[in-house]
Design goal:
about 160 residues, single chain, 7 helices, mainly alpha
Length: about 160
């Protein structure tokens, strides 16, 4: 989504420059729009990351929804009985994490999700994204400069 918005803004900037109307407030307004788009998209990303952190903190395999249970273990539109996917999944987790002890295995799995998995996801997200402070430095100051030029004018142009 952000790539599309930036591409549109870039085309608008290039179009304005190509027709020779890249002076005055047109350029500043387009730059301000690009800055705003970046800030909005980054804000949405931060909200999503925070939501993921909250979900991982509250995660419990015992609270997970299972399709079979949601349709009373009967395939909709038929009388075919569905095996309980919750029992299958929980049994596999107990086998992998608790030597076939259901309670121990499910607790161990939840601990792994709250600890190691959450840390690995956080590292992947943090490692693949631009740090927030860099985004602020890269967008806020140039954006404020553009606002100043729009409101006050360009002191270099006015000196002529």
């Amino acid at each position: 989504r952000i790539t599309t918005l930036l591409a549109i803004a870039s085309w608008a900037l290039e179009g304005a420059r190509a027709v020779g109307d890249f002076t005055g407030n047109v350029r500043e307004i387009l730059y301000l729009a690009v800055t705003y788009i970046c800030a909005e998209e980054f804000g949405r990303f931060l909200d999503e990351v925070q939501g993921l952190k909250s979900e991982l903190k509250r995660f419990s395999v015992l609270k997970a929804k299972c399709y079979g249970c949601s349709v009373n273990h009967c395939l909709p539109g038929t009388e075919q009985v569905l095996p309980c996917d919750r029992e299958e999944v929980n049994g596999s987790i107990a086998h992998w994490y608790g030597n076939d002890n259901i309670d121990f295995g499910l607790n161990k799995f939840d601990e792994m999700i709250h600890g190691q998995f959450k840390n690995e996801i956080s590292a992947a997200i943090n490692g693949s994204r631009i740090p927030y402070t860099f985004v602020l430095l890269a967008t806020v100051w140039p954006g404020l400069h553009q606002i100043e030029k729009i409101i006050i004018g360009d002191p270099l142009k006015d000196a002529d």
